[in-house]
Amino acid sequence: MKYLLCLLVVLSSCSKYLDKKPDNLLTEDQIWQTRANAEAYLYNIYSYVYNTDGGDYASMGGSDESSVSIGTVGVRQMVSGNWNAASGYFYNWANYYAAIRKSYVFEQNIDKVPANQLSDDLKKQYKGENLFLRGYYYWLLLRQYGPFVKIDGLLSQDEDFNQYPRTPFDTCVSHVSALMDQAALNLPAVWSSSSNNGRPTKGACLAIKAKVAQLAASPLWNGNANFANFKNADGTALAPASYSEDKWKVAAAAAKAVIDAGNYKLFTNLDNGGITFNPYLSVRDLFLTNWNNEIIFANVNWWRWGYTKCASPGSGGYNMYDATQNLVDGFYMNNGRTIDDPSSNYVETGFASSAGANSWEHHKNDWNMYANREPRFYAYIQYNARPVLPAPTVDDKNYFSSDENVDGQGRVEFYYNGKSGQRSAGSNNITGYLALKRISPNDNIRNDVSSFQGPYILLRYAEILLDYAEALNEYDPGNGDIVTYLNMVRTRAGLPGIETVYPEAVGNKDLMRKYILKERSVELCFEGDRYFTMIRRLMLGNQENRAIYCMNVNANDNGLGFSFTAFYNRTLFQQRFWDNKMYLFPIDQGDIERDRALVQNPGW
Fold first, then answer.
1. What H or E segment, with its residue span, contains residue 322?
2. Residue 147 above 60 pLDDT?
3. Which of 17, 174, 208, 264 is the most exposed place for a label (fewest CB within 10 A)?
4. What's the DSSP call for residue 363?
């Protein structure tokens, strides 16, 4: 009894305390009384934009270009088939809807901010940014989950959510495009101040329209027979039933609108103080500048240190973000030819007898597989025996080498008993490669220093150029713009024109499509594009894309250092699982139970 009385006294005291409102909490009315609070609310909506260390399923591990060394992470479970609708892997459905709801709150309240706090011009600008973000989140929902539930206003807490079924795909596309058109009315073509980097522009709105149109034209949503029975409970079809070539025309026109606006250009080292054009520095430093004119939309607040740590070799780094042999094989030779082309001069075995012509190319005694490759290969791939990039001093470089290999270069050791090999506890590399894109040579991962201050690029001009070439090729393969815009990307990468090395591809839809998609896989590697390209083009289910290869990382050097050859045997790393239901992510069962009108994605 004494214990019970004491408990009642405590609960009574707690009740009185909890009834008091904390002094530091703002009421809803107070939020909209100052510019600072209103802007803070808008920035909170921005916080749902991709904010990570780069380790999401699309950019790392979801496609054939990469894997993640820790077997228990979500993306490794997904590619093994170990997931279901309750797994919650990379579940963004609820988060994006939370952001969309906040966008309506902002829209309904921004005009309440007093004029002496926020001018009418700024209110218009913020409304444009807010509309862009709403459309952007709807676009992300459409890309990951397919047809979304279109919400036209702020829902009350006691709303009957069972009245909200999914919206047919084509209507979703139109809705996102309309939001981008509305947003663009109050956004500038370019920002005059670098303080606005990361905010959308008219060009960003056009780019999202181009991406949505591209998705609508692609095989996943353009008459895909697998979605024939994808319907709401009332029988409303959610996917287009038949193929339409006109959708490729719409996609091409949308991408060309971005080009014709004239606000973007491909970055080169000449934009960064260079005197003469250097393709290696152009493709590398694109990702290492605070901003440049190729960037269309980017996150300026992502976790740079985490990415650098995960993509760097042991023992300073984690060896987590591993490139695959599949991707390595995809890079061109420096003469612009594929490695399976007899005219490419590719050599699979033996050590290079001399170094490349430039300091950034292969070194003498590198494995021939890595010799005479295109500049993007050296900018984006860390391979065995290549000097580690984020190690500025000789002492820092030697830290990454075993005693027998210490020579001031810091050549990375991915073989079994190497410092970054399988025997290395807690930081073992599993493919024989690491992602090098976005890694700055000024970093010092040994001391956990990441000096790189560039944004995480979400959309850039090169992607739009390739989007345009791809769409145009699908309905007008003889159009000269295909070669023109594909070559812009190749030229920046230091490669000859496609018509020079593969003239037979010009005007040949199927062959040109092969080279366009190959160009995407190289130019946009580790940026999420490979995964979503394979998804929208129904390529992930292909048997050849499920076999993932690596080097023989279990080979021991037996005291020979880098001079042994067993490591360089192409080895099957994994045969990935695939089920066609995986073209779309599942919606969590809890969300389906809250909205009985919400149907699950096919197969889940």
1. strand 321-323
2. yes
3. 17
4. P
Of the candidates 594, 596, 592, which has an alpha carbon nearest to the alpha carbon of residue 86? 592
Structure tokens at 501: 């090395």
Mean pLDDT of 237-249: 98
Q: Using 50, 70 and 90 to split pLDDT, how confident is the model at 24?
A: low
* Three-class DSSP category at 456: strand
Q: Which residue has the higher pLDDT, 90 or 7?
A: 90
Average pLDDT over residues 275-298: 97
Q: Which residue is associated with the tokens 């012509």?
A: 357
The structure tokens listed for 473 are: 């090729």
* First-to-last C-alpha distance (Å) of the chain: 54
Instruction: Judge contact between 412 and 370, C-beta under 8 A.
Output: no
Nearest-angstrom CA–CA distance, 168 and 172: 6
For residue 538, count CB atoms less than 10 angstroms from its CB and return exposed for 0-12, middle for 13-18, buried for 19 or more. Answer: middle
Task: Say if residues 147 and 168 touch (Cβ distance below 8 Å).
Answer: yes
- Asked if residues 239 and 221 have their Cβ atoms less than 8 Å apart, the reply is yes
CA angle 381, 385, 389 (to 5 degrees): 55
Confidence of residue 344 (pLDDT cuts 50, 70, 90): very high
Tokens standing for residue 229:
């029975």
Going 427 to 429 to 435 to 436, the CA torsion angle's sign is positive
d(CA 412, CA 419): 8
pLDDT at 399: 93
Q: CA 494, CA 197: separation in Å to the nearest integer?
A: 29
439: tokens are 């890694």
pLDDT tens-place string over residues 175-230? 999 999 999 999 999 999 989 999 999 999 999 999 999 999 999 999 999 999 99
Per-residue tokens: 190:
């370019």
Q: What is the dihedral of CA 67, 72, 75, 78, to 10 degrees?
A: 120
Q: Indicate whether 11 pLDDT > 50.
A: no
Nearest-5° Cα angle at 518, 517 to 521: 90
Q: What is the pLDDT of residue 308?
A: 93
Token digits of residue 83:
């997931």
Token pair of 37, please? 């609070």
Q: Specify whether the backbone of 372 is left (phi greater than 0), alpha (psi in -120 to 50) or beta.
A: left
Cα dihedral angle (143, 147, 150, 155), rounded to 10 degrees?
-90
Residue 365 phi, psi (nearest 5)? 75, 5
CA atoms within 13 A on the CB side of 335: 13
CA angle 80, 310, 561 (to 5 degrees): 95
Cross-strand pairs, 67: 322
Say if residue 315 is preceded by a cis peptide, omega within 30 of 0: yes
Q: How many CB atoms lie within 10 A of CB 8?
A: 10
Does residue 8 carry a pLDDT above 50? no
**Dihedral angle at the C-alpha atoms of 138, 48, 127, 301, nearest 10 degrees?**
-130
Query: Residue 332 carries which side chain, given as an amino acid letter?
Result: Y
Q: What number of other Cβ atoms are within 10 A of residue 15's Cβ? A: 9
Rounded to whole angstroms, the Cα distance separating 493 from 564 reads 32
Q: What is the pLDDT of residue 13?
A: 32
pLDDT > 90 fraction of the chain, expressed in percent and rounded:
84
pTM for the complete prediction?
0.94
